[in-house]
Each structure stands twice: as C-alpha cells, then as structure tokens.
Design a protein that fits this description.
Blueprint (H helix, E strand, L loop, with lengths): L6 H9 L3 E8 L2 H5 L8 E8 L18 E7 L10 H17 L5 E3 L3 E4 L2 E13 L2 E11 L16 H5 L5 H16 L1 H4 L4 H10 L8 E5 L4 E10 L5 E4 L5 E4 L4 E3 L1
Parallel strand pairs: 1-2
Antiparallel strand pairs: 2-3, 3-7, 4-5, 5-6, 6-7, 8-9, 8-12, 9-10, 10-11
Helix pairs in contact: 1-5, 3-5, 3-7
Bound molecules: biotin.
Length: 258
Amino acid sequence: MTIDPAAGFRLAATRTGLRLHFFPETASTNDEARDRKYCHGDVVLAENQLAGRGQRGNGWAGGVGENLTFSLVIEPATLPFEKPFLLSEATAVALVETLGDFGIGAAIKWPNDIYVGERKISGVLIENDLMGDRFTKSVVGIGLNVNQRVFDPSLPNPVSMAQVGGRTFDRTDVFGVLLGRLVARLWGFSEGDLDAAALEKRYFSLLYRGGGVFRYRDVAMDERFEARIERVEPSGELTLVRPDGTRKGFFFKEVEFL
Ligand code: BTN
C-alpha cells in the first residue's frame, strides 16, 4: 500500500478551513505562495526546500521530512498601512502558543524569531504585496524545527521540539494546532475584528529579554551598551532604554542582541 505523505497535512488544513498545496520538493514555499494563483486561505507546504529563504538574506535548509516548512496566504484587507508589524506579532504569538500546547515554553526574540532558552526553534519570513496604501496579499512563511536532531554545525544556535521535549512529535498534529492558532490570530486582519492593542500586549508579554537589563550593540555606531526593552511600536521599531534613562529606537538589523 502506498501512503500519501500529504494526506495527514491535508486533513489538518481542511479541518482549519484552509487549502493545502503539498510539494515533495520546491525552491521556496514563500516563492511558490507568492504566485498569483494562490489566495487567502491557501497553504503551501514542502518537505524539502531547495532554496529556502530566511531573514537578512540567509537561507533556511535542512531537516527534510522532519520539520515543518510552509507558507500561509492571507489577504489582510484591514491591516493598517502604517502597522505591518502586527502580522509579525500575530504570527510569533501563534507560534509560541502552539509550542506551549505541546509543553514547550518559548519566547519571541524581536522581531519574530522563536527561542527556547538561548536557542532558535522557529523562524518567520513575511512578504507583503501592496497596491497603493493597501496590503493585498501577505505570505506568512514559517520554518519550525520539529523532529530534527542533527543540525549543520555552521548554524549558530538551532534547536527542535524533539530535542527540547525529549520525544518525536507527530508533525501533522503540530501542523494542525499551529494552523488553528494562526487562523485565530491572523484572520482578524481580513475580517476587520482585530484587537490590535490586545495583540501588542500579548506579543510584549512573550518577548525574550522582555524584562531586565541586557547587552546590545548599536550597529550604525558600533557601540555596545546595556539597556532594557521599553516597547515595540506597531511599525516594528524596538525602543531600548539605558539605565541613565536615554532611549533610542531601532529597526530590524540596526541593533544586535549580545
Ligand atoms: C528566519 O531567517 O528566521 C526566517 C526563516 C523562514 C523560513 C521559512 S521556511 C518556509 C518559508 N519559505 C521560505 O523560503 N522561507 C520561509
């Protein structure tokens, strides 16, 4: 008997009201999902990405058949033009909540990396299409390390659910729960019933280094300093306050966590 590897994933997506497009292999699920033929509610999942893309021009590879690498398409008609970061916040919160459902305590490393302790378990790459000042389509790309136990040594600090939980996880279960959490957090952007203030509060409460003073590097000034996170703006700007009370805002890539 031939087992269709996509069947479990398809069932999980259907239960959440989404449509699964399964690829044994593709370049990048984000690239595939950006094609015009995909619209709100489509999910593109690949077992193997040949050119998976990450933040900062990095790649995303490894764990073929062991992890989850997929892209969810949303048409966020009511997402305010000046607040695109809300999508990142909603996605990151959904990921942390999903990991919590499986007994794994995780946190959000600004802007939207998911960490367990000092190690990265999941990454998010969101790409938006705009028409004038409206978001017409967003592709929410997620890589979640589920059962991978051996990583490329060149990666700085990866970890998987299996390593943290000490057991193998059923990827279709994780996928189903995660899709449910994503729909719960993201669909408000298309239906217009999103409580942005509550989302921002929840995101902040789940931040890695959300409380306390830590070391950072101001990239432009090449300056190391101590500060605490004061807030994250809906634009994505991170405000850090030094012990002497001076504060500065940073966008992605402008500050490093030391
Ligand atoms: C990061 O650098 O942390 C973001 C990684 C995002 C990887 C996911 S895997 C599925 C989707 N397709 C891609 O090419 N990238 C994202």
